[in-house]
Amino acid sequence: MVSERTVPPFNTATVQISKEEGLILYEDMMLGRLFEDKCAEMYYRGRMFGFVHLYNGQEAVSTGLIKALRPDEDYVSSTYRDHVHALSCGVPAREVMAELFGKETGCSKGRGGSMHLFSAKHRLLGGYAFVAEGIPVAMGAAFQSKYRKETIGDATAEQVTVCFFGDGASNNGQFFECLNMSALWKLPIIYVVENNKWAIGMAHDRATSQPEIYKKASVFNMAGVEVDGMDVLAVRSVAQEAIARARAGEGPTLIEALTYRFRGHSLADPDELRDADEKEFWGTRDPITKLATYLIEHNLANNQELKEIEQRVQQTIDEAVKFAEQSPEPDPNELYRYIFAEDQ
Fold this sequence. Notes:
This protein has helices at 19-44, 59-66, 83-89, 93-100, 134-152, 173-185, 204-207, 232-247, 276-283, 287-297, 303-326, and strands at residues 75-77, 161-166, 189-195, 198-199, 202-203, 223-228, 253-258. It is an alpha/beta fold and 344 residues long. The chain has one domain: Rossmann fold (3-Layer(aba) Sandwich). The strands form two sheets. It has a five-stranded parallel sheet with strand order 1-2-3-7-6, sandwiched between helices. Strand 6, helix 8 and strand 7 (253-258) form a beta-alpha-beta unit. The N and C termini lie far apart (54 Å).
């Protein structure tokens, strides 16, 4: 069976985007794609270990949401598929790659690995290995922003929190409890379901009584939006509306982004459960190809400019691998360091 649930094509006539903005979106998506391709290469060459979950195909969701945020203020909570979220947040590729190599120079000091990327500097609240684990953490971040603004009187506390999770997490208790509290307290949070149709090896439609996840928002009197997660401009549009709503004190939004992962659940997954026709159907909707076509058709870029971006990104990734390989291993004598926060 081919999972073909999609939304109507996004009306690009309503898009207001400059050349600079378009190229930023393209470069961020290309960084995510080529970074993940390099991770696969390193993993299969035996240079990277543990579970590694790649994001290929879902780049429009990360870029469309995170690049609409205020980079020095807003928060992002991720999942175990967190590499590209970290990159979109501005965490340097070398720090992400070093973390995947388990090195001291990694963004989590080599203690987190693929599923536990974290960066206080870049407002990345972490990647989380357990399904739905990041949802309460994100809600806590949103609560403190509201508390600081309304109770303490901190006028600068206008942060918005974006919480990413997969379709499988929408059946967990944390999802329902946190959406309920967020709606009651009108927290400045955006819940983003990256519905890639599969929760590990379980097809989404077989695991839930309501496959259209965004409709669950109505139970909490919350705004619920369905968007084409393979179209970065569509994601960006709904993100801007949800961010404005949150920052204005109008409460949370549940966004269901319909997307698809082009690789198996993890690099250890032979990906034998998904139908070949399904993979072919979604493969033709590649979000990077779609944006490139838009930029060229609207005279915002040409093929040479896009090629130069790809080459520049590839150089960044190659340098990140070299940095990771040359970086030191964590000192065994500091095994227990970073368990508790240290003085700055």
